Amino acid sequence: CPAAEEPQLLAELKPSRPQRYDWKSSCETWSVAFSADGSWFAWSQGHCVVKLIPWPLEEAELCKSSERKSRGGKAEARSRGAAKEKTLECGQIVWGLAFSAWPAAQAGGTEPTCTVGLPCLILATGLNDGQIKVWEVQTGHLLFSLLGHQDVVRDLSFAPNGSLILVSASRDKTLRVWDLSKDGCLLCLPLMTRVSPGHQVQVLSGHVQWVYCCSISPDCSMLCSVAGEKSALLWSMKSYTLIRKLEGHQSSVVSCDFSPDSALLVTASYDACVIMWDPYTGEQLRTLRHVPLHSPVDYSSEVHTSSLRSVCFSPEGLYLATVADDRLLRIWALELHSPVAFAPMTNGLCCIYFPHGGFIATGTRDGHVQFWTAPRVLSSLKHLCRKALRTFLTTYQVRALPIPKKLKEFLTYRTF
């Protein structure tokens, strides 16, 4: 895989409010999120505020050069008359964000006030006081709150299958599983009655430190959670029991993500390493080390400067993006041991790919969001076949197939 072009900064969004100096305002952007269809972007900009931005951005915001502006007229025209940017006043520091689609409304139903027959979007926000507030994206209205956590809700993850199963990760050292499809009639009640114990399905206990991140596999069979510990926990989304503990990092694990076919899991740690796992067997497939960009490879020195903050897969599953404390955004190709591209960024905290590929959004300690170009790749037929097969076949099922060994190695990502 040849080196990719260096990521280019497309745009930078900054908080519209002047920075305050009391700790309650907290200006960090701990989370950014795109809706699955790419139509909305959410940004926890600090000051207890979330910005909801319809996508694509206005031409003047996203395109900086005159060349891009000349090509962006159509995008600007499409955005006219469309949904408007919204500000959600959450009342608490916002740590986690997650979108989901609410099922299509039926005439006379009690769902959120979206157009009859069309699904609408909801956004869950994890707050400093342990609350989870759920908002209707189209209107910006608060639908209801979920109570149960005793400390900061650090991360949120909706099941990708549209079942309205939400998993929350908290500093109270637990994960909670919520079913938002239960008691749907609550959504039409006054906010005084907005909390229902019926939403909570399960409390997952197993971590002994703050839980930083949680990720549900695209096939909705597994859940990974990471905390201030050297291991990651893998859970069954069917029985809500612990499958295995993944051990291999030398410091706190802070971020995790599944590949689009659910066949791979990556974890990022303060030890400056990303480990790629086979979640079905628990095997370590590869370690990606974050070493200083312009220094000899020496894993024993300056490791603290490369402490990782976030890792995410690209939509086609051929690239990874990582953000570290050494002020670099790195892009990695799945087949290589070293990054294929770098971009300088300051105080990065989180990163996420646009669902349709082409660029990456990153959040910073300054409350800013930056949008970077990312490699566009035409997946090979081999990779497309592997991705399609691994969507419904586990590693053990692939190994049982009557096919050549080399093909099994390719399908199980053992050919790195």
TrEMBL record:
SUPFAM superfamilies: SOCS box-like, WD40 repeat-like. Pathway: Protein modification; protein ubiquitination. One of its GO terms (biological process) is intracellular signal transduction. The keyword Zinc does not apply. It comes from the Eukaryota. Coiled coil: none annotated. Residues 380-416 form the SOCS box domain. Keywords: Repeat, Ubl conjugation pathway, WD repeat. WD repeats lie at residues 123-145, 146-181, 204-245, 246-287, 301-335. InterPro entries: SOCS_box (IPR001496), SOCS_box-like_dom_sf (IPR036036), WD40/YVTN_repeat-like_dom_sf (IPR015943), WD40_PAC1 (IPR020472), WD40_repeat_CS (IPR019775), WD40_repeat_dom_sf (IPR036322), WD40_rpt (IPR001680), WSB_SOCS-box_domain (IPR051983). The keyword Hydrolase does not apply. This is WSB2 protein.
